[in-house]
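Q: Here's a chain of 506 amino acids. Please give me its 3D structure as tokens.
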Amino acid sequence: MRTLQLKFTAIVTLCVGFCFGGAVFGQTAAPARKSSAELDALAKRVIAEQHVVGASVLVFQNGKTLLHAGYGFADLGLEAPAKDETVYHIVGPMLPFTGIAVMQLVERGKLSLDDDLSKYIPEFPMQGHHVSIRQLLNHTSGIVDYHYLGDPIEATSREPKALDEVMALYAGKDWVNEPGKKWDWSISGFSLLVTVVERVTGESFPEYVQKNIFAPAGVKSTTYCDDFSVVHGLSHAYRRFGAGYEPALEDDMAYNSDLRFCSTVGDLLQLWRAISEKKLVSAETFKQMSTPEGVAMQMSATDANAHYGFALSLNQEEDHKRIGQHGSLMGYSGSLYDFPADGLTVVVLTNTEGQNAYAITRALARAVLGLPDLPAGGGGGNSGEKELPNVAMTSGERAQISGTYILKLERLTPQLHDSFAQYRRTYRVFDENGRLMIEALGGVPERLFKAEDGSFAMRSSPRAHITFLTKDGRETSMTMDGSGYGAPLSGARVGDGDAKTFHMQR
């Protein structure tokens, strides 16, 4: 079930240095260790391991294309193949260009990095805090990430929203940290930066980006994607469902504007190279963007090399510094990494939910750099078909379990961002004409299967182990373990499993 799958728009990309897409400043990179045929075989293997429906891959080093190919299907129903320049919704690699847009305005004297957010968005409830543009760019604002809250976005992810409706998803929620005290990823910061750009320029964000980023870079296939546009060559999005796939039906207009763009791997490389050619910002500005400061020097308690700049993640692949971004949302996955000292850029886009583009990027980059292979990962969600139990239940037993339940994470695990402390997800368990069903708010109802030990499972997430606590002959709480968060989800029954009670929770 799509609502059980962890959606990390968060990134784990990295860098330091100053060169892009083969334009090397300083060191001369070593030649590629792998031939194009070997890279092609490696891409096919990792794509299969990650259960990816379709992907486009571009590996570029020192002015030479080592691999530029499509794999799998852009559309499963039509069996249309993915091509080298298939179009995808871009999740991850477009976010640095939100930073570029802001820094262009800084260069032009239109705003300052130390300006307070309230100067541009006075209606945003600051709750006594002061947040700067700088803190929005480097994820030290302390503002909660709305797409880690559960119901607010997952229950409405198929509904288009205006910018103020997106802001309403997180405005007024508890802050996760005091501004400037800790690094913690928050896509809400990008949402606010979009509004700042629009108010400073008097243009819509898509208009500004087209005029000031896409046109100077000379890209042709990168466009704003919304509910009014037909995008030529756009792939369909999917997520794992049992042993197969289901369409990912989120509306990109349910999210902030900088997540509403479509592009190709070739265009993303060209956009990245436009930075090295100083078409977008000065070399000094980009150096500032790619230099971590303050608490952004430490993104991870377990990785001392993980840092964050302005809308850019910085780290290294063993001794090779890298810069870029990756992410997954709406059934798409994207990754762009540049290795400055090696003149290497790898861009991967897929139409399958999960951090699979990142896994493919790392595998290809390590091969070119002559580094050992990483252990194979299952990726992509469920690993395959599982024979689900189906113990018969009486109507009385189904009625006893039926109800509306609000689940929360029992604890935060190290891999989760602080915003997950406010995560909540509403589920409805109900009897539908003799079948026990489960439905997440805003999700698709499906069968709930009972096992001999009294626990339950469902086809979409066979690893999720669902149990109910009974008191005085009535179910009082529900626990879902193995759903991918590293900690169980649990919560109380808040009412009957009827449609009215369920939808009142929105």
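Q: Can you summarize the key feature?
A: The longest strand covers residues 64-75.
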